[in-house]
Design brief:
There is one protein chain. This protein is of the alpha/beta class. The protein has three domains: 91 residues; 208 residues, Rossmann fold (3-Layer(aba) Sandwich); 35 residues, no CATH class. Helix content is 58%, strand content 8%. It contains twelve helices and five strands. Strands 2-3-4-1-5 form a five-stranded parallel sheet, with helices on both faces. Strand 3, helix 9 and strand 4 form a beta-alpha-beta unit. The longest helix has 57 residues. The chain is elongated and about 110 Å long. The chain starts with 10 loop residues before the first helix and ends with a helix. The relative contact order is 0.12. Pfam families: NPHP3_N. InterPro entries: NPHP3-like_N, P-loop_NTPase. It comes from Hermanssonia centrifuga. Keywords: Repeat.
Length: 345
């Protein structure tokens, strides 16, 4: 009758066993209440007495176990809460140390039914283990950023870990999102939020450089290259890939030496993605500037070159997209709203 409660490790097993014990004790006590104790032989009475004592001892032991179990649960919950608090404090300290600039949201996605071939090609390239870099180039306003937004949504739904950065002009100074020195700290912080090993590497970098790092080259080496190269195994153990999306590189301030360092580190980062065995992918969008082309072309990127000149052909995707846009919007929203949205996209 005695049940070794202390050996139950799982909550469900313990609960079921305790219920069974209580039912057995209840039935036994019922039978004892129905018996005439004077008619019970002494040997049987001793057996019953021993059984009742064993049941009571097991119940007491169960009570002790419940108390210990609950205490252990409280300790574990407290440990989890304390750990989460520590991580939050670490991330706040890293945010201050990196001097992060608030990012602006990405553009809206492509209108449904447009850019289908382009998005399909890019999606296929990003699933190809041989391809690690996609470069989307084109004139301002041709739709690079909307394509980038659609890629981010597609790959997030596929289970990839997607981190983004967007260089962005403003109508008035200051323009912190044009500073080349904001890229790598922002991406490093996003990596630290998602991957424990990257966070720990960043904490060590902070200890060695209390006052931060201003050189773009040093930022890349300390915040990105060294943590990633030391922890590539992190990405093999997770489903999906790491996709880094950098929008509007041409919007960055093109003053030396930071512009040159930005292009050099972009090239080095894309090279690092090639060495990751398909676990890290990069998507870059920009105007087709000569400097950017010189930096990326040696890496043989999969390239989407957008051009309005293609609209002269009835077979071009741009022509079909424009036709789809106007026929859809003019039916439902009026001319004014459609032209405003076209200008935005």
């Amino acid at each position: 009758m005695s049940i070794p409660v202390k050996y139950y490790k799982k909550k469900i097993e313990f609960k079921e066993s305790l219920q069974k014990l209580a039912m057995q004790a209840h039935r036994l006590l019922q039978h004892l209440g129905e018996l005439e104790l004077d008619d019970i032989p002494s040997n049987d009475f001793d057996i019953l007495k021993s059984a009742v004592i064993a049941i009571m001892e097991a119940i007491v032991e169960a009570g002790d176990f419940v108390e210990c179990y609950m205490a252990r649960g409280n300790i574990e919950n407290s440990s989890i809460a304390a750990s989460e608090k520590i991580v939050k404090e670490q991330m706040e300290e890293l945010r201050d140390w990196l001097r992060l600039v608030k990012q602006e949201p990405l553009e809206e996605e492509c209108m449904e039914g447009t850019r289908e071939r382009i998005l399909s090609d890019i999606d296929e390239w990003l699933d190809d283990p041989v391809r690690s870099l996609v470069w989307i180039s084109g004139a301002p306003g041709i739709g690079k950023s909307t394509i980038v937004s659609s890629i981010v949504q597609q790959r997030t739904h596929k289970g990839d870990q997607v981190i983004t950065f967007r260089f962005k002009r403003r109508t008035e100074p200051p323009e912190p999102l044009r500073d080349p020195g904001t890229l790598w700290p922002s991406l490093a912080f996003d990596l630290a939020q998602r991957f424990r090993d990257c966070r720990l590497a960043l904490i060590e970098a902070k200890k060695a450089n209390r006052y931060g790092v201003t050189s773009v080259n040093k930022q890349f080496k300390m915040l990105i290259r060294e943590p990633l190269k030391s922890n590539l195994g992190v990405f093999y153990d997770r489903p999906g890939k790491l996709l880094v999306v950098i929008d509007g590189v041409d919007e960055a301030i093109r003053d030396p030496p930071h512009w040159t360092e930005l292009l050099d580190t972009l090239r080095d980062f894309c090279q690092l993605s090639k060495e990751s065995g398909g676990q890290i992918r990069v998507v870059i969008s920009s105007r087709p500037l000569h400097d950017i082309s010189n930096a990326l072309s040696p890496l043989r990127p999969s390239r989407i070159a957008l051009s309005v000149a293609d609209s002269q052909s009835n077979d071009s995707e741009i022509w079909r997209d424009l036709h789809h846009f106007f026929t859809t919007r003019l039916r439902g929203g009026g001319i004014r709203g459609s032209f405003q949205e076209m200008a935005h996209n």
